């Protein structure tokens, strides 16, 4: 059975960097069994209705500004997967989750930065899914749960976001880690490892520095989506943890 993964996508410039995190993601892509398809929730595709991509051939979206010119030359020509799109629509319908198809949108940097590191040849089909920040945390988990059976079909479910993601707090010159960011992630790690969903669903009230770490929820939501997809065995493993710019978390969680 495939795991589900939460992967922090960091800043768009991660696509050009060579560091411990990019090396880890490259190695992870080699170590995982090659999936039939990838289903990816990106924090940068927001919609109040759950959308599932039915694109045959994706364009690469540059949904950022002010970065290195080379970033805008990168292409990630992934293909869609009609069979998996249809299965997702069926699973959501069975779970009573309204879903609509999108046949136009390409892959944003929350998707292609991660995918390019895992599968640089763009040789695994991709189905992109939107994120709805307005659902409750428990509902986010349930959206992931609805797709859990995909893992038995050799489909890799990924949530792409960031546990600590506050652009106003970034220190682009810092080589250290802000204590408040570490405190939030340490609390999160404890609750994930013990599969304490009650606390996780109330993280915004219980976790230290939650408002600083998660000023808006769209980057945190993919963690709950990936966790929900791993609900069957309820086993969480922290595969990588680091920070950039003082507090931008670069973490990867695997849910078996």
TrEMBL record:
<protein>
    <submittedName>
        <fullName>4,5-DOPA dioxygenase extradiol</fullName>
    </submittedName>
</protein>
<keyword id="KW-0223">Dioxygenase</keyword>
<keyword id="KW-0862">Zinc</keyword>
<comment type="similarity">
    <text>Belongs to the DODA-type extradiol aromatic ring-opening dioxygenase family.</text>
</comment>
<keyword id="KW-0560">Oxidoreductase</keyword>
<dbReference type="GO" id="GO:0051213">
    <property type="term" value="F:dioxygenase activity"/>
</dbReference>
<dbReference type="InterPro" id="IPR014436">
    <property type="entry name" value="Extradiol_dOase_DODA"/>
</dbReference>
<feature type="domain" description="Extradiol ring-cleavage dioxygenase class III enzyme subunit B">
    <location>
        <begin position="21"/>
        <end position="247"/>
    </location>
</feature>
<keyword id="KW-0479">Metal-binding</keyword>
<dbReference type="Pfam" id="PF02900">
    <property type="entry name" value="LigB"/>
</dbReference>
<dbReference type="InterPro" id="IPR004183">
    <property type="entry name" value="Xdiol_dOase_suB"/>
</dbReference>
């Amino acid at each position: 059975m495939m795991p589900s993964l939460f992967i922090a996508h960091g800043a768009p410039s991660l696509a050009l960097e060579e560091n411990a995190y990019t090396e880890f993601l490259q190695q992870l892509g080699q170590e995982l069994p090659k999936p039939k398809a990838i289903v990816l929730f990106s924090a940068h595709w927001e919609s109040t209705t759950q959308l599932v991509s039915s694109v045959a051939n994706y364009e690469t979206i540059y949904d950022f500004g002010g970065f290195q010119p080379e970033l805008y030359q990168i292409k990630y020509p992934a293909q869609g997967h009609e069979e998996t799109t249809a299965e997702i629509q069926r699973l959501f319908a069975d779970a009573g989750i309204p879903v609509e198809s999108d046949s136009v949108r390409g892959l944003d940097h929350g998707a292609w930065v991660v995918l390019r590191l895992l599968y640089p040849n763009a040789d695994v089909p991709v189905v992109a899914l939107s994120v709805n920040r307005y659902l409750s945390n428990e509902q986010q988990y349930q959206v992931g749960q609805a797709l859990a059976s995909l893992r038995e079909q050799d489909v890799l479910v990924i949530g792409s976001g960031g546990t600590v993601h506050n652009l106003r707090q970034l220190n682009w010159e810092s080589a250290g880690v802000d204590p408040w960011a570490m405190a939030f992630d340490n609390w999160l790690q404890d609750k994930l490892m013990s599969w304490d969903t009650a606390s996780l669903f109330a993280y915004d009230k219980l976790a230290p520095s939650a408002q600083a770490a998660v000023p808006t929820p769209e980057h945190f939501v993919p963690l709950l989506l990936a966790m929900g997809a791993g609900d069957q065995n309820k086993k969480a493993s922290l595969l990588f943890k680091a920070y950039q710019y003082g507090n931008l978390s670069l973490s990867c969680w695997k849910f078996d």
